[in-house]
Specification:
The chain is mostly helical. It is extended and about 160 Å long. The protein starts with a helix and ends with a helix. The strands form 2 sheets. A 5-stranded mixed beta sheet has the order 2-4-5-7-6, with helices on one face. The protein has a two-stranded antiparallel sheet with strand order 1-3. Helix 16 packs antiparallel against helix 17. Strand 4 and strand 5 form a beta hairpin. Helices cover about 75% and strands about 5% of the residues. The chain has 35 helices and 7 strands.
Length: about 900
C-alpha cells in the first residue's frame, strides 16, 4: 500500500512543471481525482485528508470518511485503517487527547497484523504526541524506540531513510521538551547530516532544518535560526508542503520579533494573512491574526489589535478550537486592561472561562490559571480585594488539582504583580526569586522586561533605591529594543518615582515628560475613536448577520404561508369530493377509528419512550454527582500527598540533626564519667600526701604551705568537683533536648501508630522554650491516665506546633499558656486544649480562621496556612478542632481525637505516606 501512495505522489509531481509557481500537493491531487479508480483513488483521497491534519479539520473529516467508505467498498483494509488514523489526528487537534489516543491504540496492532508500514508509523506517531501532551513520562520514549526499530526493518531504502529521519526528529523534540537542549541539538545536527549523506528528499531535509530553526529560536540564537528557517522554506517549497512552508514563516516572524525587527515580522504576518484569506485556510488565518495582534498591542496600536482579535475569535469558534479560543478571549481582555477598561476586560476573561466549562477543561488548565490571575489583577484595579484574593487562590489551586500543570513564566510574572499591588512584597519576592533562576528559559524578551519591572517595584517597596533603579533601567532597555510600549511606560514611571524619592528632581522630571508623551501618543483621542469604530463595525456586522437570518426566516414564513394556502385549497377539494361520496362515509368512519387506535398505540409508545428518557436523565445526573464526588476525593488526596511529603522531609531533617548531635553528646557524657572517676583517684592520692605531710621537716612544710596558699589549693579540689558536676548537668540537659527532638520528629514513623500525646506535647513545648523563656509561663495539666492514641504523630506534632506557636505569637508581652489533656468519659475520644491570655479573636473573624490564606498578622509575617493545614490534619484523623474566644479574653483551641482510627485509615496509611 505504501508503494501505491508513493506512485500516486510521483504521478502528481510528474503532472506539474518544476518551474511553475508554488502549489501544494493537495491542489494537484484534487485535480487528479477524476482520473483515478480503486486503491489509487482511496490513496489519493487519504493523502488530501492527511494534508489537512494541520489546517482544515472539516475537510479532513470529509475526505477521510470518503476514503474509509471507498476502502470498505473495495475491501481495502489498509486504506480504511489509514483513514481512521487520520481522523484520530483530527481528534488530537480538536483537543480530544484521550479519544485520539484510543484511536491510535486500536490502529497500531491492526497495522502490525497487516504489515502496513505507513499505518504502523502514523499510529505510533499519534501515540507519541498524545502521550507527550497528556504528561506521561516513559511512554513517549518507548514509542520513539519502537518507531526506530520498525524503520530499521523496512526493506525499501527510500521509506527507511524517510521514517528514520522522522523518528530522530521526534526524539530531538522529546529532548527539547525535557530541556535537554544540548542533546537535542546534537541529535538534530546528526539527523541533518544523515539526511544529506543518504540524499533524503526535500521534505525530510526541510524537517531537519525546521527543527534546528525552532531550537535556535527557543535559545534566542536569532542569526542561525533565520538561516535554518529560510533554508527549510526552500525545501518545503520543493516538496510542495503548504502547511510546513507556512509554519516556517510563522517561526521566522517570531524570530524577527525576538530580534526586535518588528517591521519584518509585520510584513511576514501580513503576507500570511493575505495568502490564508485567499485560500480560505481558516486555522492559518486565525493564527496570523492573533500573532499580528500581539505585535500591534505591544506597539500601542490597540484598534488594529482588537480588529484582528475579534476576527480570530470568530474563526476559532467556527473551528471549535477550545484552547485557542480561550487564549484569544484572554488576549482581548488584556488589550482592554492596557486601555484601562477593566470591566470590559473582566467580561472577556469570563467569556474565556465559560468556554472551558462548556468543553474539555483539562486541556485548558494552563490558560485557566493565567485567566484567574488576570481576574485577580483587574479586581485589584477596581478596588475589590475580596474578589482579587478569591481569584488568586483559584489560580494557585489549579496546579494542585492537576499536577501535570505548572504556572508558566507569564502567569508567575502576573502573580508577582498581584502581590506587589496588594503590598505583599515578601510573597512577590518568592516568585521573583524563582523566576530569576530561569531567565534564560523565558519565551520572549517581553517577559524579561515584565520581570525586571516587577523586580524594580519590589525593591521600590523595600526602599532599596539603587537596586530598584537598576531593575527599571534593564526593563526600559529591553522594552525600547523590542518596541514593547506598555512595558516601556511601566519602566519610565518606575524610574520617575525612584528618582523623585531620591530627590533627583531634574532626572525624575525628564522621565515623567517622556512617560506622558508616550502615553499621549498611545492613548490619544484618535486611538479611542478608532477603537470605538472597530467595535461599532463589529457590532454592525453581527447585526447584519442577525438581519440576514431574520430576512431568511421571513422568506421561509412566506413560503410556508403559500404552502398552507395550496394545502387549504386541496383540502377543500377533498372535502367536496368526500361530500359527494357520502355513500362511503361508513367505511371511512371505520378506517378513521382504526387510525385512531393506531394513533393511540403510538402515543403509548411515545409515553414509554419519555419514561425511558426520564430514567436515563436521572442516571446521567447520578453519574454527574459521582464524578463530582470523585473530583473532590482526588483534590483531597493530592493535598494530603503534598503535606505528607513535607512532613516526611521535616521529620527526616529533625531526626538527622538529633542523631548527629547525639553522637558527640554521648562522647562527652562518657568522657565526663571517666573524668569524675579519675578526679576522685587524684583527690584520694592527694589526701594520702596530706596525711604524711606532718612527718616532713619544718622548712619543707613551710614551703608547701606557702605554695598551697599562693595557688589557692584549698579551693581547687572543690572547684574541680563543682566543674565536673556542672559539665554533667549540661550533658544531661543536652541529652534531654536531643530526646525531645527525636520525640518531635518521631524518627521511623511512617503511618498510624499508638502514641502518648502527653509526651508529644512536652517535646513540642521543649522545642519552643527559646520563644517563651522569661516572658510566658507555661502551665501543664496532663491527664496521667491518658490512653495511647492511634495517629500519624508527625502530622499531629505539626498541629501541636502550629497551635503553640500561634499562642506564643498572640501574647505580645507577658502572659500564660495552659496545655490540658484528658480523656472524654462519654466516648472513645481524647481532648487536647491549648489556651493563651492573648488579645483573643473578634467574633466576626472566628468563622474565617481555618480558611486557607486568611491571616491577621502583618504583611510578610504569615501565610495564613497554619490553621488550615491543622484543620485538614485533624479532619484526616476523624477528629474535630474548634476555638473558643472573645476579644480581649484570650483564645482556647480544642482538639478532639479518637483513640482508635477506622480500619480503612490505618490500612491505607502507608499508601498516603
Amino acid at each position: 500500500m505504501g508503494k501505491c501512495i508513493f506512485l500516486v505522489l510521483a504521478f502528481v509531481l510528474a503532472l506539474s512543471d518544476c518551474r511553475a509557481q508554488f502549489a501544494s500537493v493537495e491542489d494537484s491531487l484534487e485535480t487528479l481525482l477524476p482520473r483515478l479508480r480503486g486503491r489509487r483513488l482511496a490513496d489519493a483521497v487519504n493523502a488530501i485528508a492527511e494534508e489537512n491534519i494541520h489546517s482544515d479539520l472539516d475537510k479532513l473529516d470529509r475526505y477521510a470518511d470518503w476514503a474509509d467508505s471507498l476502502s470498505n467498498d473495495i475491501h481495502y483494509p489498509e486504506g480504511s485503517l489509514l483513514a481512521q488514523v487520520i481522523k484520530g489526528f483530527g481528534l488530537y487537534w480538536r483537543g480530544r487527547l484521550a479519544d485520539a489516543n484510543a484511536v491510535f491504540q486500536e490502529a497500531y496492532p491492526k497495522a502490525l497484523a497487516l504489515q502496513f508500514t505507513k499505518g504502523i508509523h502514523m499510529s505510533l506517531n499519534g501515540l507519541f504526541i498524545t502521550s507527550l501532551r497528556m504528561g506521561k513520562v516513559k511512554e513517549p520514549d518507548n514509542y520513539i524506540q519502537w518507531g526506530l526499530q520498525h524503520a530499521g526493518r523496512i526493506s525499501d531504502p527510500i521509506e527507511k531513510i524517510f521514517y528514520t529521519i522522522q523518528w530522530n526528529d521526534d526524539r530531538a523534540t522529546y529532548y527539547s521538551n525535557l530541556h535537554e537542549f544540548s542533546r537535542a541539538r546534537q541529535l538534530m545536527n546528526d539527523n541533518l547530516a544523515y539526511a544529506r549523506r543518504y540524499h533524503a528528499g526535500a521534505f525530510s531535509l526541510g524537517t531537519c532544518l525546521l527543527s534546528l530553526g525552532r531550537l535556535n529560536d527557543l535559545k534566542r540564537h536569532t542569526i542561525p535560526a533565520i538561516d535554518h528557517l529560510e533554508r527549510a522554506m526552500e525545501q518545503f517549497k520543493i516538496a510542495r508542503s503548504r502547511h510546513f512552508y507556512m509554519a516556517c514563516q510563522f517561526y521566522l516572524a517570531s524570530v524577527y520579533v525576538l530580534d526586535g525587527q518588528m517591521e519584518k515580522a509585520i510584513q511576514i504576518y501580513e503576507g500570511l494573512i493575505a495568502d490564508t484569506e485567499k485560500r480560505g485556510y481558516k486555522i492559518g488565518m486565525a493564527n496570523a491574526y492573533i500573532d499580528l495582534a500581539d505585535l500591534y498591542v505591544n506597539q500601542g496600536k490597540f484598534a488594529k489589535a482588537i480588529t484582528l482579535q475579534m476576527k480570530a475569535i470568530q474563526l476559532f469558534q467556527e473551528l471549535n478550537r477550545v484552547t485557542m479560543l480561550m487564549s484569544t478571549w484572554e488576549a482581548l481582555g488584556k488589550t482592554y486592561m492596557k486601555l484601562g477598561n477593566y470591566p470590559q476586560a473582566i467580561f472577556y476573561f469570563r467569556q474565556a472561562i465559560d468556554v472551558s466549562k462548556n468543553n474539555n477543561p483539562t486541556e485548558a488548565y494552563a490558560v485557566l490559571s493565567e485567566l484567574y490571575i488576570l481576574l485577580s489583577q483587574t479586581s485589584l484595579q477596581l478596588n475589590d480585594p475580596t474578589e482579587a484574593g478569591r481569584y488568586a487562590r483559584m489560580a494557585l489551586a489549579l496546579p494542585l488539582e492537576n499536577k501535570t500543570i505548572t504556572l508558566s513564566a507569564p502567569s508567575l510574572n502576573n502573580m508577582a504583580r498581584v502581590y506587589l499591588w496588594s503590598q505583599m512584597p515578601d510573597s512577590a519576592a518568592v516568585i521573583l526569586d524563582t523566576l530569576s533562576r530561569h531567565l534564560d528559559k523565558f519565551e520572549s524578551v517581553q517577559e524579561q522586561a515584565i520581570y525586571y519591572n516587577s523586580l524594580g517595584e519590589l525593591q521600590r517597596q523595600r526602599q532599596h533605591h539603587t537596586q530598584s533603579l537598576n531593575a527599571f533601567e534593564k526593563a526600559l532597555a529591553l522594552s525600547q529594543a523590542t518596541h514593547y510600549a506598555d512595558n516601556e511606560m511601566t519602566a519610565l514611571k518606575g524610574l520617575y518615582e525612584e528618582h523623585k524619592a531620591m530627590r533627583h528632581s531634574d532626572v525624575a522630571l525628564s522621565y515623567l515628560k517622556t512617560y506622558h508623551a508616550m502615553k499621549d501618543s498611545i492613548y490619544s483621542m484618535a486611538t479611542s475613536n478608532e477603537i470605538t469604530d472597530v467595535i461599532i463595525q463589529h457590532q454592525t456586522a453581527e447585526k447584519d448577520k442577525e438581519h440576514a437570518i431574520l430576512v431568511n426566516n421571513e422568506l421561509l414564513q412566506k413560503a410556508d404561508l403559500r404552502t398552507r394556502s395550496i394545502t387549504l385549497i386541496m383540502v377543500s377539494v377533498v372535502l367536496l369530493f368526500v361530500f359527494l361520496l357520502a355513500l362511503v362515509l361508513v367505511r371511512a368512519n371505520k378506517i378513521n377509528r382504526k387510525n385512531n387506535q393506531v394513533l393511540h398505540d403510538k402515543n403509548q409508545e411515545i409515553a414509554v419512550q419519555n419514561e425511558e428518557i426520564t430514567s436515563q436523565n436521572e442516571e446521567i445526573e447520578l453519574q454527574h454527582n459521582r464524578l463530582k464526588q470523585s473530583l473532590h476525593d482526588l483534590k483531597y488526596t493530592q493535598t494530603m500527598l503534598i503535606h505528607s511529603e513535607k512532613m516526611a522531609s521535616l521529620g527526616q531533617l529533625t531526626a538527622g540533626v538529633a542523631h548527629e548531635i547525639n553522637n558527640p553528646v554521648n562522647f562527652i557524657s562518657n568522657g565526663v564519667e571517666g573524668l569524675i572517676q579519675q578526679t576522685e583517684i587524684l583527690i584520694s592520692v592527694l589526701q594520702q600526701y596530706e596525711a604524711a605531710a606532718p612527718q616532713l621537716p619544718p622548712e619543707k612544710r613551710a614551703l608547701i604551705a606557702a605554695l598551697k596558699k599562693k595557688l589557692g589549693f584549698d579551693d581547687t579540689l572543690g572547684d574541680i568537683q563543682d566543674l565536673t558536676k556542672l559539665i554533667k548537668t549540661g550533658v544531661d540537659r543536652t541529652t534531654h533536648i536531643v530526646k525531645s527532638l527525636r520525640t518531635f520528629s518521631h524518627e521511623g514513623q511512617k503511618a498510624f501508630s499508638k502514641m502518648n500525646l502527653n509526651e508529644q506535647l512536652e517535646a513540642t513545648l521543649i522545642m519552643t522554650q527559646s520563644e517563651v523563656k522569661g516572658r510566658i509561663d507555661v502551665v501543664r495539666d496532663y491527664d496521667p491516665q491518658l490512653p495511647l492514641v492511634e495517629c500519624n504523630i508527625g502530622e499531629i506534632n505539626q498541629v501541636f506546633m502550629n497551635m503553640i506557636m500561634n499562642a506564643i505569637q498572640a501574647i505580645r508581652e507577658k502572659g500564660t499558656i495552659t496545655v490540658t489533656t484528658k480523656q472524654l468519659t462519654t466516648e472513645r475520644n481524647v481532648r487536647v486544649e491549648i489556651a493563651d491570655t492573648g488579645p483573643g479573636i473578634p467574633s466576626e473573624l472566628k468563622h474565617l480562621i481555618f480558611d486557607p490564606f486568611f491571616t491577621t498578622k502583618e504583611v510578610g509575617k504569615g501565610t495564613g496556612l497554619g490553621l488550615a493545614i491543622s484543620a485538614t490534619i485533624v479532619e484526616k484523623h476523624h477528629g474535630q478542632i474548634t476555638v473558643e474566644s472573645e476579644k480581649g479574653q484570650g483564645a482556647r483551641f480544642i482538639i478532639v481525637l479518637p483513640i482508635t482510627q477506622p480500619a480503612t485509615v490505618t490500612r491505607l496509611a502507608p499508601d498516603v505516606e
